[in-house]
Amino acid sequence: MILKREHFDAKQAQLYDVIVAGGGAGGLSAAVYLARYNLKVLVVEKGRGRSFWMQDLWNYVPRVVSGKELIEGGKEMALHYGADWLNGFVEAVTDTGEEFQVRVKYRFKNSDYPVFRAKYLIAATGLIDVLPQLENMQNVYEYAGYNLHVCLICDGYEMTNRRAALIAGSEKAINTAFVLNWFTPYITVLTLGVYPVGDEMRAKLADHGYPLIEKPIARFSGKDHVMDGIEFTDGTAIGVDTGLISMGSIRHDDYLKNLDLLTDGGDIVTEYDCRTSHPRIFALGDLKKGLNQVSIAVADGTLAATAIWKEIRRASAPRKWTAPLQEAAARAEESARPEIGLGAPRGG
Ligand SMILES: Cc1cc2nc3c(=O)[nH]c(=O)nc-3n(C[C@H](O)[C@H](O)[C@H](O)COP(=O)(O)OP(=O)(O)OC[C@H]3O[C@@H](n4cnc5c(N)ncnc54)[C@H](O)[C@@H]3O)c2cc1C
């Protein structure tokens, strides 16, 4: 069910098996499995996460859908099988040793801060890509996620042999050009003029024939979500067919900060089944170390949910079918009862 204010008292009183922070690709996969394992699960989703911005989902079998369709379908399925859902923002998590207390901000105005409790926590809050900050951000949103891409693995194919602008957020990020050139050699590198480029990198770009433009972008041009050019603040412009933003990302992990999970370069380190260095916290998808793809996040949800189910199942008393057991006990009692009045036939 979708939780509203009127449900908070009852739901805060109960202990969930699992709270899933984040209802994107990974969190939804985990929620569906958990609900179908007949476990009590709550998904908390703030809205407009990374998968929401995915206009086309590629490299995912069986068919191409948008991120919104993926989220809507997954949410419908999780609710159908009995998961609870809360539109809210996970602010803080406290580990009492026995359970997690998850504080959620509900509604931006007139907010409530309910605290829900669970035995296990799944962190599936992903990250968000850094975009060029233009005066008119609507102009960026018009094309970002369409033919102005943020993910080379997802969309490199879409850029095959097209004129591509690589918007690199740092000198290190310029190296993406030498991976993007697997798909297209027609690359122009843009720095937005915010950092210096060393001689070595300049020479490497020149050697590959990739122009370097070091001035701020004024706006992207095009129409109907198809970018066809980039205009600069000095009034110059270039024509492009596509673009790739390589400016890094921001992890949605503030609520995990006091839990001291093992990380590597900021990514949460997990075992095969997505268990973190805390035995009752699992991390999925983009938040953890590994490839940032929907197929991985979905598989992570499967692994984490199944590992949690196994643990809870093994710790539970076996469910027995009592009727046959009672009947068998009654039969045993009957046959053990001494027969009265019918002794063995006497001889002679
Ligand atoms: C434009 C674009 C195109 C892409 N194209 C592809 C593609 O074609 N193929 C592909 O495989 N991958 C693609 N990706 C990558 C893909 O979106 C991610 O790898 C995938 O969504 C990761 O799943 P996740 O569950 O880890 O994170 P997400 O799907 O981002 O889910 C995390 C969820 O957590 C929520 N959240 C965050 N913080 C909080 C909080 N504190 N409280 C509550 N909720 C919170 C967010 O709103 C979000 O819904 C693309 C990404 C982008 C941005």
Proportion in β-strands: 15-25%
The rough form would be described as: elongated
Unreliable spans are none
**Tally of alpha and pi helices:** 9
Bound molecules: flavin-adenine dinucleotide
User: Order of SSEs, N→C?
Assistant: HEHEHEEEEEHEHEHEHEEEEEEEEEHH
What's the pLDDT, averaged over the residues? 95
Largest sheet: 7 strands, mixed
Total number of beta strands:
19
Q: Nearest-angstrom radius of gyration?
A: 28 Å
Helix content: 25-40%
Strand-pairing-aware structural class: alpha/beta
Distance between the termini: 80 Å
Structural summary, described in words:
By secondary structure, the protein is of the alpha/beta class. Helix content is 26%, strand content 25%. The chain has nine helices and 19 strands. The chain has helices at 8-13, 25-36, 67-80, 137-141, 152-155, 177-180, 199-208, 294-315, 322-336, and strands at 15-21, 41-45, 84-87, 89-95, 100-105, 115-123, 127-129, 148-149, 164-168, 187-190, 212-213, 217-223, 226-232, 237-239, 242-246, 249-251, 263-264, 267-268, 281-283. The strands form five sheets. Strands 1, 2, 3, 4, 5, 6 and 19 form a seven-stranded mixed beta sheet that branches. A five-stranded parallel beta sheet has the order 8-15-9-10-11. Helix 2 (25-36) runs parallel beside helix 3 (67-80). The radius of gyration is 28 Å and the shape is elongated. The mean pLDDT is 95. The protein binds flavin-adenine dinucleotide (FAD). Flavin-adenine dinucleotide binds at residues 21-27, 44-51, 53-54, 56-60, 89-90, 124-126, 129, 145, 150-151, 154, 252, 255, 284-287, 292-295, 297.
